[in-house]
Amino acid sequence: MSETIIQLAHGGGGRLSRRLIAEEIVPRFGMESLRDLPDAAELKPEAKRLLFTTDSFVVQPLEFPGGNIGDLAVHGTVNDLAVCGGRPRWLSLSLILEEGLPLSRLRRVLDSAAAAAAQCGLQVVTGDTKVVARGQADGLYINSAGIGEMFPGFDLGPGRVRPGDSVLVSGPLGDHGLAVMAVREGIRIEGGPVSDTGPVHRLVQAIGELAPLVRFMRDPTRGGAAAVLNELVEQRDVGVELTEADIPVSPGTRAVAEMLGLDVLQVASEGRLFLVCAPEAAEQIMARWHKLPEGGGAACVGRISGEAGRVILVTVSGGRRLVDVPQGELLPRIC
Amino acid sequence: MSETIIQLAHGGGGRLSRRLIAEEIVPRFGMESLRDLPDAAELKPEAKRLLFTTDSFVVQPLEFPGGNIGDLAVHGTVNDLAVCGGRPRWLSLSLILEEGLPLSRLRRVLDSAAAAAAQCGLQVVTGDTKVVARGQADGLYINSAGIGEMFPGFDLGPGRVRPGDSVLVSGPLGDHGLAVMAVREGIRIEGGPVSDTGPVHRLVQAIGELAPLVRFMRDPTRGGAAAVLNELVEQRDVGVELTEADIPVSPGTRAVAEMLGLDVLQVASEGRLFLVCAPEAAEQIMARWHKLPEGGGAACVGRISGEAGRVILVTVSGGRRLVDVPQGELLPRIC
What we know:
Chain A is of the alpha+beta class.
């Protein structure tokens, strides 16, 4: 029996389009509001301050150890809201499908997205599906946009960071990027990297009482820790000093990074949180994070320095190395 | 001098990514909130009821008579909010760029998107940019998600429609779809079709006082009028009776439709509004629409019938023809 595949007509606005949406998408996301397929979903937020974000996902391969493009798209948007101090509430999912995509594969992706949304306690309330011909996409691209309600008390921004502040990370770095790269390069080793794709909003929620002492949060996705930290200090009169010995890296991830000659600090994570806080808050934040599974590997990895605009790594051997922004395209289509 | 093109590194999260965003995107949209490139934008809505929608745009060619994928992406999302009774306020734009895309082309698209957003009085507050390799996209895809605030007084839905209601349309049908098809097929005729891509929110705003008498609104995009009206009556005990003689169609659009053997009723418009209202409101709505440039061609094209689930066209010669949903993929990548 031949496999059911996506056809151009699934995106044409006619009968097949409607069946795809009615049979594969609406039931998975329990979109009560979408029964009549309106063009927009109605929301009744409780908070007065909302957050709004969007991300497109083009990861390749579509499925990788630890996740697939479906849960990645949900987590990515949840995390963009969370690092700005928001509780994720509503999500949109918009699909660009390539003609020929096996329906079974689309189902696995949608199942993962639905499970991730449920786990994060958010509703997928609106969406869109387009189909392009063979050779005009690479299987499947997903856009997710998200709306969150601000947790009270956070006042975040690079401008609030000052020398002496602590730099924390919620878990090992680079697992997502190296899990994806290992598949692409055909590297199979025991205990190899598994993507950390996952939500960070509970890590933010858990430290709500300490919110006034938190200066800055960001998830180290494309460009990894190097991009996040350089962006934080660029054109400012502070720097970052990282202590290599304190940076958590999973053994399998380290092994693959070494095989591929990649710097873990430049590789994307998709379920980690960088946080800068007043030094007196670091211990309490760490204690709260360690109680959550997604914060079990949290560590204090450095501090804010007075070295304007520079991110420095104090190596295990005691040397000092500049951590630069990735220059070129080290890792295309990592998310 | 060789032309500047998009490179994979523009999507890598490193220096080139940041330059592209800082130099080409942020200034065009005047995103004050984006100076620090946070992951999410903060919104302070005034209304308690919000609307949320998303659409991905894959139109081919990227530029066509009357517009390009940039203003189309803004108008599409504005219109999805407007037909649900919402005033568009905030927009996200997410780009998937193909390596090799000329920067000049991207600039034209972004200029159009920015102009459309300004014209609609909405702010582009957040975005994302990904780059895929040559052959993995077709130049450029855009996703836009939008948030609107409900105009007061509207209570819309297919379930509110009843026999005897009037069916109005805000202007000629099929201009967008046939403008795109004409380019693709290399048809050049004098006075040929020009896309109607444009916003419909002012048409909705203009009839605010009559809101309680409005039952249903929808923009006839993919699948055209045929898809919208069949969706409206499917599995309901009402039908639609259209009067062919009253349906506005531009001469150039009609000519190209005949050359290509396409039914204008199945072709997308991107700046038109179908509206069903109590019969006593039709004349007043038409009068208000006629005062606006985008409603100058508005017409009452039919009425709601008791013929359950059927959309019937009363032809110029007095015959009755069933208007069916497009079955296959007549017009791929029309929006």
